[in-house]
Design goal:
This protein is of the alpha/beta class and 252 residues long. It has a domain of 140 residues: P-loop containing nucleotide triphosphate hydrolases (Rossmann fold, 3-Layer(aba) Sandwich), CATH 3.40.50.300. It is 34% helix and 24% strand. It contains 7 helices and 10 strands. The strands form 2 sheets. Strands 6-7-8-3-9-10 form a 6-stranded mixed beta sheet, with helices on both faces. Helix 2 packs across helix 3 and helix 3 crosses helix 4. The structure holds adenosine-5'-triphosphate (ATP) and magnesium ion (MG). Magnesium ion binds next to helix 1.
């Protein structure tokens, strides 16, 4: 179990004033959670994910981890230990699909045989074994995002935690819906823990156990929704639409 505590996070602007982005923002991430974060553009969602992934340590607050989920938290450095899928397509265009997945494993000096097993297992998981020698430009946008998920999982993240920054926003509606279902299948099969940023209320309602709604700058959490609709969720279901409407009312 993780806890993120941000008392404040600011960036210096070019005219030397401070842009206060996040303030008194705290939440837990439980094992096998699925948390979506929604909020206005520019409110600090990417900043939260970058802090979680350990790319940005320049904030007042801490990242905490409770190894036994018993509320005994210790500070920890998450860099390289959790999976991160950034806001833009992130595959290296000059590397094959297989080499993209191996990238983090090479950095960690994982033996070749173990790498081979990981690549096979993950390509099998997303049903893309026959694409291993392809280059990113030779596969579709949806497939690229599946490979980005493989790459995030390849490093064997702590508590199977991956953070995803609007991973499906560049996809057409049909591909997006299919990938949401694929992601839920992978989440369940691999017992993943996911923190997911999206602007799409329908997507947040379809996927999440919990949704955190952020305010404008300096952003804090104004509302947390627990979504208990069992899977598979139907987008036309009454309860689904009620949650969607409630979420929308907090964004306007
Ligand atoms: N490296 C940086 N240097 C200076 N300011 C930054 C930096 N990164 C983000 N900011 C500022 O912090 C604020 C939050 O940015 P962030 O990218 O986290 O927003 P976001 O909620 O992810 O937006 P979007 O929904 O458009 O992706 C913005 O005002 C942005 O200008
Ligand atoms: Mg962003």
């Amino acid at each position: 179990m993780f806890k993120i505590q941000i008392k404040s996070k600011s960036f210096q602007t070019p005219d030397n004033t401070m842009n206060h982005v996040l303030q008194n923002l705290e939440f837990n991430i439980k094992e096998h959670d699925f948390i979506s974060i929604i909020g206005p553009s520019g409110c600090g969602k990417t900043t939260i994910l970058r802090i979680l992934a350990g790319f940005d340590n320049d904030f007042d607050g801490s990242l905490l981890y409770s190894p036994n989920s018993d509320n005994n938290y210790e500070k920890f450095d998450s860099l390289g230990k959790i999976g991160y899928i950034p806001q833009e397509f992130s595959l290296f265009p000059w590397l094959t699909i297989e080499k993209n997945i191996r990238f983090g494993l090479n950095i960690k000096n994982i033996p070749k045989k173990e790498q081979d097993e990981t690549v096979d297992r993950l390509l099998d998981l997303v049903g893309m074994k026959e694409y291993r020698k392809h280059l990113p430009k030779e596969i579709s946008g949806g497939m690229k995002q599946k490979i980005a998920i493989c790459r995030a999982l390849a490093i064997n993240p702590m508590s199977n935690l991956i953070v995803m920054d609007e991973p499906f926003s560049a996809l057409d509606a049909q591909t997006r819906n299919a990938l949401q279902q694929d992601l839920l299948d992978i989440w369940r099969k691999q017992k993943l823990t996911i923190v997911f940023v999206t602007h799409n209320i329908d997507e947040a309602t379809f996927l999440s156990k919990r949704v955190l709604v952020l305010t404008k700058l300096p952003a804090k959490i104004i509302k947390e929704f627990n979504i208990e609709i069992p899977h598979p969720r139907s987008r036309t279901n009454l309860e689904f639409n009620k949650i969607r409407k409630d979420l929308l009312s907090y964004l306007n």
